[in-house]
């Protein structure tokens, strides 16, 4: 069964009455085969990825047909898309709804984006769900967020496993509720062998702390005599970042919704060469049309990595 039909069947929940419908695409889909990974998209990730040329060939040979809108070119699709999901509260307040309903609507947008990434052959989707700075929000709102995250993960875990979706969490999960920590551990263990789409959720995450903890780990290795100071380089730091669980640890494309133009302490090292796309849509309104716009913008750019333009 095609992946799109699988996810439509098992991931999409009925539309809730408070959630506006994201714009949809009416263009027909075309069926394409997955070719070799584009060299520009692969270049940055190659240094730290566990995938070698043999694995890439195996991916190409075993790939099933995927569906792409005609506006997109398969060979220019990003391997890794990262998203700062902003605007849930503003979306709710604009409609006179409680903030909690904004987050509920945001969960539906997450389901929709996971389906689209699976349909269109994207390998990794990283979602900024909760910043380490978000603890400063009112306790009732934080408790609501934690409860929604736990409920959504519990409801979808079996579905993710059946659909071939792998779940990973980055961030300091030790501060999360114990029941949520247990569920996260179960989700990571249950889905660790899946390879169709890797969904990475950043919870209680700080990009600055990610770099700091990597440096602390390396400093301890120097102290223990495992490595010499002269051995420290960018590759060694990359191996100690929390994204070392990802085959493509560097996002090719970062999307931020709700019109904000900042990174907000998200994946600061990993985003060094990412293409940035800022959408004016609030997160609950970010649907297929908005994602297609971001991908089309990405495919029109030249990723030179310091080289001359062609």
In short:
The protein is an alpha/beta fold.
Spatial order of strands in the largest sheet: 5-6-4-3-7-8
State mean pLDDT (0 to 100 scale). Answer: 85
How much of the polypeptide forms β-strand, as a percent range?
5-15%
Bulk shape: globular
Q: Helix coverage percent of residues?
A: 40-55%
Q: What is the string of SSEs from the N terminus onward?
A: HEHHEEHHEHEHEHHEEH
Query: What structural class results from the helix and strand content?
Result: alpha/beta
Largest sheet: 6 strands, parallel
Span between termini: 41 Å
Number of helices: 10
Number of strands: 8
Radius of gyration: 19 Å
Instruction: Catalogue the unreliable spans.
Output: 1-43, 46-51, 53-63
How would you sum up this structure, described in words?
The radius of gyration is 19 Å and the shape is globular. The protein is of the alpha/beta class and 310 residues long. The longest helix is centred in the middle third of the chain and has 24 residues, at 139-162. The chain has helices at residues 3-10, 39-46, 53-62, 88-94, 99-119, 139-162, 178-191, 207-223, 234-240, 288-299; strands spanning 30-32, 66-68, 80-84, 124-131, 165-170, 197-205, 253-256, 275-278. Strand 5, helix 7 and strand 6 form a beta-alpha-beta unit. Helix content is 41%, strand content 14%. Helix 5 runs parallel beside helix 6. Strands 5-6-4-3-7-8 form a six-stranded parallel β-sheet, with helices on both faces. A two-stranded antiparallel ribbon has the order 1-2.
């Amino acid at each position: 069964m095609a992946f799109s039909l699988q996810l439509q069947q098992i991931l999409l929940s009925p539309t809730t009455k408070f959630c506006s419908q994201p714009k949809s695409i009416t263009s027909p889909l075309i069926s394409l085969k997955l070719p070799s990974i584009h060299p520009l998209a692969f270049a940055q990730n190659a240094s730290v990825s566990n995938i070698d040329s043999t694995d890439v060939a195996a991916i190409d040979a075993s790939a099933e047909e995927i569906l792409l809108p005609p506006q997109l070119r398969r060979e220019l699709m990003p391997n890794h898309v990262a998203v700062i999901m902003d605007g849930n509260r503003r979306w709710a307040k604009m409609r006179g709804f409680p903030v909690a309903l904004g987050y509920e609507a945001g969960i539906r947008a997450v389901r929709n984006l996971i389906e689209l990434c699976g349909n269109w052959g994207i390998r990794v989707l990283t979602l900024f769900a909760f910043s380490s700075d978000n603890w400063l929000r009112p306790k009732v709102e934080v408790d609501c967020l934690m409860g929604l995250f736990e409920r959504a993960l519990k409801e979808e875990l079996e579905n993710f496993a059946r659909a071939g979706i792998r779940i990973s969490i980055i961030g300091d999960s030790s501060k999360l509720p114990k029941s949520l920590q247990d569920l996260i551990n179960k989700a990571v263990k249950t889905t660790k062998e899946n390879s169709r789409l890797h969904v990475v959720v950043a919870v209680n995450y700080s990009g600055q702390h990610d770099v700091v903890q990597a440096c602390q780990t390396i400093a301890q290795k120097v102290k223990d005599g495992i490595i010499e100071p002269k051995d420290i380089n960018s590759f060694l730091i990359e191996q100690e970042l929390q994204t070392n669980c990802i085959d493509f640890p560097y996002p090719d494309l970062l999307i931020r919704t709700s019109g904000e133009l900042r990174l907000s302490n998200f994946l600061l090292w990993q985003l060094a060469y990412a293409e940035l796309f800022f959408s004016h849509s609030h997160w609950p309104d970010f649907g297929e049309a908005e994602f297609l716009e971001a991908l089309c913008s990405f495919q029109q750019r030249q990723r030179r990595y310091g080289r001359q333009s062609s």
